[in-house]
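Hi U.,

Before I forget, here's the chain from the pilot set. I'm dumping it here mostly so it's searchable later in email.
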Amino acid sequence: MAGHSKWKQIKRKKAVTDQKRGAAFTRLIREITIAAKAGGGDPGGNARLRTAIDAAKAENMPADNIDRAIKKGTGELEGVIYEEVTYEGYGPGGAALLVQASTDNPNRTVAEIRNIFQKHGGNLGAANAVAWMFDRKGQIVIDGKANEDTTMEVALDAGADDMEKEGDIYVITTPPTQLHAIDLALRAKKLPVQTAEISMVPKNTVKVEGNDAKRLLSLVESLEEMDDVAKVFSNFDIDAEAMAAVTG
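Structure:
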């Protein structure tokens, strides 16, 4: 997972254009709407909605946008009906890819995703082709400037499963149901939380190098740029030097 976490951090540090911010808002609004539809509009009793709202606030989404998205989910406002879909496949170097999306037109979305896989040397597979390779976990990313001992102590005391140093960040793994409580405990101690989200964590990683690494990261980036795609998970492991070479 180290390679993929590092990839997400590199992307986060890139300059954010208005177009990219708009795409991020689109995905966040869809997640809030779906979460509110599935579990109600009260974040106090809907952990998924609470996590989605936290993510939206981290991206500086206006409160009015968040409120409208919740009301669309609960039916108080009219809105497009989105369906959650997951696509699975393999990228260059044999890396497994799990793509979570929300769409109002599954036929359009699967055609676009299949085209991206093929364009970058990957293959879109059938349901459950790779899902068994991942575990559903909470993941919290902390700025690596924080004190390691303090961060680990707070995280473990709050119920975290593990914490690892990955480059210039700490990645804390939690039970999905404990994500929000552990996030709050870390923030209460003024620790620099960067992200807190539900992730699909690979049970094992696959080493990817050379041209395969370049094509794989291009595939992942192209998928992540789709409006319909919420998250992309992979089990690739690309070392820091290769990652830097690929991303420039």
